[in-house]
Specification:
The complex is a heterodimer of chains A (about 375) and B (about 260). Chain A is mostly helical and about 375 residues long. Chain A has 14 helices and two strands; from the N terminus they run H-H-H-H-E-E-H-H-H-H-H-H-H-H-H-H. Chain A has a single domain, classed as ABC transporter involved in vitamin B12 uptake, BtuC (Orthogonal Bundle). Chain A has a two-stranded antiparallel sheet with strand order 1-2. The radius of gyration of chain A is 22 Å and the shape is globular. With about 260 residues, chain B is an alpha/beta fold. Chain B has eight helices and twelve strands. Chain B has a six-stranded mixed sheet with strand order 6-7-8-3-9-10, with helices on both faces. A four-stranded antiparallel sheet of chain B has the order 2-1-4-5, covered by helices on one side. A two-stranded antiparallel sheet of chain B has the order 11-12. In chain B, strand 1 and strand 2 form a beta hairpin. Chain B is globular and about 60 Å long. Classes of the chains: A mainly alpha (about 375), B alpha/beta (about 260). Chains A and B meet through helix 1, helix 9 and helix 10 of A and helix 2, strand 6, helix 3, helix 4 and helix 5 of B. Chain A: One of its GO terms (cellular component) is plasma membrane.
Chain lengths: ~375, ~260
């Protein structure tokens, strides 16, 4: 076949540039949102000082790394930024990116617009794991003397058990699809069944739980990005970045699968293997986030669809776009959750749907961008 | 020979679908696989690029065994146009660019874009290049699908009922494209077809399948009233008009 006389069409290059600008715009928006999110709260910090504190903090820490004897002299602003708000804001961004990229991958892998960590039962499996840990293993209790102080006295066990159940749910879905052939319908239906099963299991345990245990389980279930320490944030960031890079590297395979299984096979894609590996990666990143932060629904399902409405189904732009959108949505939700009923701080899971649903319905009604 | 199929057999679970399929094809030839519904035409086509793995036999492209090659290698040799493909929110250009998948490393190169542009021009799709494929008609979508298979730069094109849902004008256009491509380039095409007259008009080799085996194979002269009645169970007559041969079904009672 000879197509030697081809030229590079400028209108197509313009079209590609526009897609890239959309994503770049999203990144810029996310950055500004990060500064704004850190500046608002019980103690208002002007955005410029937030920026300075972050930059100085990074410089100081690099300095500390090079000269272990140096002493940091953080101001109170630095303490608020670096100890409280920055980890929380970054956790929101990382969790948003991770859940959203898992959602977009699952939607493509399962050929189903309802694919997301939540619909496939991974989130509910995590919640069930937390309930098992708190109620059966006794890792949670509530100090009723101090208002607003629910503690999980052994959060690491709870996280581990939640993580194990997330992986268990994934393993069952993959096993079922293995037996029946890796068809997307089977995976989705197995996920829905598992989701119900784990919800029922959680309800069963809660029915026999004491008041304090019940409170601890419910507290765990409300996904909250304020829980993450720097170390946990590091683990989540590592897994999320690795997963995102994996999905981006496979963008052409997902595009091919979106065109139909037979087309994809004809284009040289090992459809079953791409599906299985993709499922494991997506489940892993969801499991890590859910077990550290609790159940955060909606982001994984809806962010990819928002991006689809804005820049289309091409995975080359959809995957990075969903990452950015996930970060924006969860960070925005968390910022609002922190200030909406100040001085109380809502867990972000309450707010994601409140903020996201109207935007999503608007985008559905408006249809695609021309 | 560009394509050698030797003793290919396939079965779903235990029921044999096709067996003992042997034929070969030269460059510039178009082969039509004919036969009634469910006889295994599509199965045979899918065996030829190992979407379905044959249980026996071999498929050689220019002497290289496809069954020993990996998917990517096969995709560089065989282009497959399925009966229907899903249309997401993608531009025509990107949908065709997807056909470069077997050649793309980390990202598309200028060469890939040039090839796609040339293919779009060849199929007269260049004015539609930034239209979204989920807004296109069946005929346009089929052309996109063929363009995608062409930019794979395959040696053999497989087309599964390329004209089954198209109007007359689109049927002629699509088959004209297939004929033009096979005539101009060093490739061969295999297509399954229902429309005997279109097959007679555009193909130059024929295989008639009956009960999973080849009932008759060869040039246009194998499409006779006898073979058609044996394969389809319908009495027909084959007429000529201005050098075109066409098949006219007869009423069973009047035969």
């Amino acid at each position: 076949m000879h197509f030697a006389d081809g030229t590079i069409p400028t209108d197509y290059l313009g079209y590609v540039r526009k897609k890239h600008l959309w994503i770049l715009g999203g990144v810029v928006l996310l950055f500004f949102l990060l500064i704004v999110s850190i500046s608002v709260g019980a103690v208002g910090i002007p955005p410029y000082e937030v920026f300075l504190s972050i930059v100085n903090g990074i410089v100081d820490r690099i300095h500390l790394l090079l000269n272990p004897d140096a002493v940091l002299n953080p101001t109170s602003t630095d303490r608020i930024v670096w100890n409280i708000r920055l980890p929380q804001a970054l956790a929101a961004v990382v969790a948003g990116v991770g859940l959203s990229v898992a959602g977009v991958a699952m939607q493509s892998i399962l050929r189903n617009p309802l694919g997301s960590p939540f619909t496939l039962g991974i989130s509910n499996a995590g919640a069930f794991g937390a309930a098992v840990s708190v109620i059966l293993l006794g890792t949670g209790q509530m100090h009723s003397t101090v208002a607003d102080a629910v503690t999980l006295n052994n959060p690491y066990v709870t996280t581990m058990v939640a993580f194990i159940f997330c992986l268990l749910a994934t393993a069952v879905i993959l096993l079922i699809s293995r037996i029946r052939g890796a068809s997307p319908e089977v995976m989705v239906l197995a996920g829905v069944a598992l989701s119900s099963l784990f919800t029922a299991g959680t309800m069963f345990l809660q029915y026999f739980a004491s008041d304090t245990q019940l409170a601890a389980v419910v507290f765990w279930t409300f996904g909250d990005v304020g829980r993450a320490s720097w170390q946990e944030l590091g683990i989540m960031a590592f897994v999320t970045i690795a997963a995102s890079l994996y999905f981006i590297a496979n963008r052409w395979n997902y595009n091919a699968i979106d065109a139909g299984d037979e087309t994809a096979k004809g284009l040289g894609v090992s459809v079953e293997r791409v599906r299985d590996v993709g499922m494991v990666v997506a489940a892993l990143v969801s499991a890590v986030i859910v077990s550290f932060l609790g159940v955060i629904g909606f982001v994984g399902l809806v962010c990819p669809h928002m991006v689809r409405r804005l820049i289309g189904d091409d995975q080359r732009y959809l995957i990075p776009g969903s990452c950015v959108m996930g970060g924006i949505l969860l960070l925005a939700s968390d910022t609002v959750a922190r200030i909406i009923v100040a001085p109380y701080i809502l867990p972000v899971a309450v707010l994601t749907a409140f903020l996201g649903a109207p935007v999503f319905i608007y985008l559905l009604l408006r249809g695609y961008r021309r | 020979m560009i394509l050698d199929v030797d003793g290919v057999a396939f079965n779903y679970r235990s029921a044999p679908v096709i067996r003992d399929i042997t034929f070969d094809l030269r460059p510039h030839q178009i082969l039509a696989i004919l036969g009634p519904n469910g006889v295994g035409k599509t199965t045979l086509l899918k065996c030829m690029n190992t979407i379905l793995r044959p249980k026996a036999g071999s498929v050689l492209i220019e002497g290289a065994d496809l069954l020993a090659a990996d998917r990517m290698e096969i995709a560089r040799k065989v282009g497959y146009v399925p009966q229907r493909c899903e249309a997401g929110r993608m531009t025509v250009f990107d949908a065709v660019l997807l056909g470069r998948r077997p050649h793309i490393g980390w990202d598309v190169t200028d060469k890939d874009i040039r090839i796609v542009e040339a293919a779009l021009r060849m199929l007269h799709l260049e004015t539609l290049s930034l239209r979204y494929i989920d807004e296109m008609s069946g005929g346009e979508l089929q052309k996109v699908s063929i363009a995608r298979a062409l930019v794979q730069e395959p040696r053999v094109l497989l087309l599964d009922e390329p004209t089954s849902s198209l109007d007359l004008k689109n049927q002629i256009e699509i088959l004209g494209i297939v004929r033009h491509v096979t005539a101009e380039h060093d490739v061969a095409a295999v297509m399954t077809m229902h429309d005997l007259n279109m097959a007679l008009r555009y193909a130059d080799r024929f295989i008639l399948l009956k009960d999973g085996v080849i009932h008759a194979a060869g040039g246009p002269d194998v499409v006779t009233p006898e073979t058609i009645e044996a394969v389809y169970g319908v009495p027909v007559t084959v007429e000529r008009y201005n050098g075109f041969r066409f098949v006219v079904p007869l009423e069973p009672e009047s035969a």
